[in-house]
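Practice problem: Sodium:alanine symporter family protein
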Amino acid sequence: MLESFEYITGEISDFVWGLPLIILLVGTGLYLTFRLAFYSFRMLPYAFKLTFSKQDKDSEGDISHFQALMTSTAATVGTGNVVGVATAVVAGGPGAVFWMWMTALVGMATKYSEAILGVKYRQENARGEMSGGPMYYIEKGLGQKWLAVLFAFFAVFAAIFGIGNMIQANAAADVANDVFNVPVWVTGIVFMILIGLVILGGIKSIGRVVSFIVPFMIIIYVVAGVFLVVYNVDAVGGAFALIFTDAFTGQAVAGGAIGTVIQMGVARGLFSNEAGLGTGGIAAAAARTDVPARQALISMTQVFIDTIIVCTVTGLALVMADMYMIDIEGAALTAQSFDELLPAFGSLIVAVTLLFFIYSTILGWAYFGEKCLTYLAGTNFTMVYRIIFVLAIFPGATLSLDTVWNLGDTFNALMAIPNLIGLLLLSGVVVKETKRFNEIRAYEKGKTSM
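Answer key — structure tokens:
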């Protein structure tokens, strides 16, 4: 029964992640990058500066710039950066890492556009909280209620049964069992309790928790990665060479399947940074900001942090250790690769940081799913949603790796399609808001210099 379910979910995942969706995803990012005249590249240093700048506390919104960024980053820096990269390299070869990078580079413009529209079309809900995201900008900006409903519907399922919950719980159980010999059911119960304690407090509670956890864990993981590279510096050049050559040959995959390399790289790149899923717009809408583009610039830095920095650490470790061809998968493969390169404590670093990454990711996605449910049915079912969300953690921890990843990939694709359509058709609004921000920024500069 379970094997049949795994086969069916695998077939569905392969179908939705065919060439048309890959073209739509990457094509949208490229189109927005060119239409914005490479604004996401040119403004990246300024965007990082904005992240830590003071802001007007009187601006509309529920949480700070930084907390909104950390909520978005919390939801993305997780299994995609550790397990996702591992599954991409196993199935697609080292070249998949290159396509993850490419997805991220064009994804910055996508994330920027999601955030700018998320803030522009946000509205206050019955509890006095800000709500925004694809469901709002598709309905209010395009006037296509049915497409907005479709996005929100699939997003709720993705939050509970896919990328936001079950996949995370599965990875947590896997690494806890592999490194600490903790039974998977124990991890499932512990995470149910810890997640339940926080999500009952809503976005402000989530914002406070993740703004503390996420930066700390990312720094530890990246520092460990830098140390890993320095400690094994002789293997770095060969690893980069293999990643670049395999990206266009697919030699590491049986039969030289270049299509598989690209497919896995793009799919896992999207899973990692979520540029194209629309979640960036949901998180940005909660931020206290006076101009949509200001928060959008901050939001797009998440893609760079997530994929260009954190995923690169994992990808290099996997390729340098040369263990991706052995019969190990998921978090265990990344942990053993780190152990191979940093004997004695490599797997411990992966295990501890991944568990915290997963915890913060589940919190971020609990919020995203709740916002989508609120759009569909109001606030009456909030507590029911939170209870179902928490209960779904346990089966996620105990199901097979392939099954939960197939579900996650499928819901990702179904979320991405309506969102990408919305971004393309509203790209003119994004350009207009960007020009308005540039005018405001020029005025602020002139006022400061007077």
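Discussion: Residues 63-444 form a domain with the Amino acid/polyamine transporter I fold (CATH 1.20.1740.10). Students who identified this feature from the tokens alone can consider the problem solved.
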